[in-house]
Amino acid sequence: MKKEMKIILPVYKMVYAFAFVVILSLIRGVVFTNEIGLSIEGPFAILIAVFCADTYVQEITSNRSEVQRLYQIKKRIYSIIQRLMIQGTFFAAARCSWIWIVFCVSETSYTSSNRK
Asked: Which pLDDT value is given to residue 106?
């Protein structure tokens, strides 16, 4: 599992995702809570596509895909399931942090506008 995490989530991907979440929450403000889902779907779909494409490119350029082909089918399927679970957990945490940041930013702007 540790090896899969190193392959799927290197440090630069985590930093990129965190910066994406922070910048997106500052740029894309929401007024009502029902707007959160709509404002998160498109950008996170792009982020997930970029992550999966980068993982695919890394597999091809480092020749890990050639080594993967030598394994038994059960081990390959288990490896793919592990990678999907790791990425799914990471993106779920990123979405939760985005929602938390949006609530903090919108609450701060709401209280500051009410003070005037």
From this structure: 64
Q: The tokens of 98 are what?
A: 């985005």
More confident residue, 48 or 109: 48
Please state the rounded mean pLDDT for residues 45-70: 77
Q: Are 43 and 24 in contact (CB under 8 A)?
A: yes
* CA atoms within a 13 Å half-sphere pointing along the CA-CB vector of 44: 22
| pLDDT for residue 108 is more than 70 | no
Q: What's this model's pTM, rounded to 2 decimal places?
A: 0.65
Residues 8 and 89 sit within 8 Å (Cβ to Cβ): no
For 9-72, where are the alpha helices, taking DSSP H only?
11-27, 35-61, 64-68
End-to-end Cα spacing for the chain: 53
Six token digits for residue 30? 């929401």
* Residue 63 Rama label (left phi>0; alpha psi -120 to 50; beta): left
Residue 95, helix vs strand vs coil: helix
